[in-house]
Amino acid sequence: MKQPIIDMHCDLLSYMEYVKGAQPFFPGIGCNFNALKAGNVKLQVMAIYTGTEKGSSETGLKESEIFKELQTTHKENVCLVKDIASLNAAMNSDRTGMVVSIENASGFCEEDEPIENAFKKLEKIISNVERVIYVSFTHHGENRFGGGNYTKAGLKDDGKKLLDYMSGKKIALDLSHTSDALAYGQLEHIAKHNLDIPLIASHSNFRAIFDHPRNLPDDLAKEIIKRKGIIGLNFLRAFLNNDEPNVFYDHVLHGIKIGGENTMCFGADYFFASEPDPKRVPYYHKDKEDASCYPALLKYLEGKVPAGFLEGMSHKNVIDFLKRTWS
């Protein structure tokens, strides 16, 4: 029997916003509805993603509207997850549950507008989608909130204001696209002001296994583990290891080694590249090309991991996290 799957990150919304006439069944993205069904995905986190550029907040709002529309135009395939009751219903349904995240806070705030507008625009997005599961402050670059993975910038004043706003709202803070300096700054501000913000890395691997700025150093990974967050392992070759498909399992075993047995889950990061980078194509190893791959990945791990781990990684760790966060 296939394990039910929860995946913490995909870019279906930005694909549909960017590609004129795109439909969620098209094979142009690995998290298309057919692949999700084949992989037995019961909950898919759908990111609102934008670059840091003029008009980013308009794009973010459009993606929230696409998410809302999917609930009616494809109600035979997907259902909204916004609380524990609807999560339980999705896990026992033939449909895929869906919930929104925000990848890059530029999706609700331009670089040159009053910070107060950010909170109003975020509330508008939440009114459209009914629940935002997590927010990542940045993408690869730098914005008004702080520095992304490929920068050295840390937490900025507007980032502190955004953390203050998030406290107590049951929205997790995602470290998957932070610079190390931003992550440490966020942790320091949360501790200094005793803020109530869950901590996760939605789609990141381990730097100890593959040295890349998109991967977590062990001290940050252990901080997430200590705070009973979750770490969604990413399928992109560039973050696993470009040449070794089976290194995915090394990341899994490292996570167990550092105490993350009840923390790890999937964060596949199926995305659409408007301008494919020849140096990175193919973006995924063949055994991880789309969301139909989860049963085979779990099958390979049988006998190599502690008892109960596959149930945890496939769905239970996320369910336990959401019960702690949303209840």
Task: Note down, in words, how this protein is organized.
Helix content is 39%, strand content 14%. It has 327 residues and is of the alpha/beta class. It has one domain (5-326): Metal-dependent hydrolases (TIM Barrel, Alpha-Beta Barrel). It starts with a strand and ends with a helix.
- Architecture (CATH level 2) name: Alpha-Beta Barrel
Structural domain count = 1
CATH T-level topology: TIM Barrel
Task: Report the biggest beta sheet as strand number plus sense, adding barrel if it closes.
Answer: 7 strands, parallel
Strand content: 5-15%
Q: Given this structure, which CATH class is correct?
A: Alpha Beta
Query: Helix content range of the residues, please?
Result: 25-40%
Q: How large is the radius of gyration?
A: 18 Å
Order of helices and strands: EHHEHEHEHEEEHEHEHEHHEHH
Distance between the termini: 30 Å
Low-confidence stretches: none
What is the number of strand segments? 11
Number of helices: 12
Shape: globular
Looking at CATH, the homologous superfamily is Metal-dependent hydrolases
* Structural class by SSE content: alpha/beta
What brief labels describe this structure?
11 strands; TIM Barrel; two-stranded antiparallel ribbon; 39% helix; 12 helices; seven-stranded parallel β-sheet; alpha/beta; 327 residues; 14% strand
What topology emerges from the helices and strands here?
Blueprint: E1 5-10, H1 12-18, H2 33-38, E2 41-49, H3 56-73, E3 78-80, H4 84-91, E4 96-103, H5 115-129, E5 132-136, E6 142-143, E7 146-147, H6 157-166, E8 172-174, H7 180-192, E9 199-200, H8 218-226, E10 231-233, H9 237-240, H10 247-257, E11 264-266, H11 294-301, H12 309-326
Parallel strand pairs: 1-2, 2-4, 3-4, 4-5, 5-8, 8-9, 10-11
Antiparallel strand pairs: 6-7
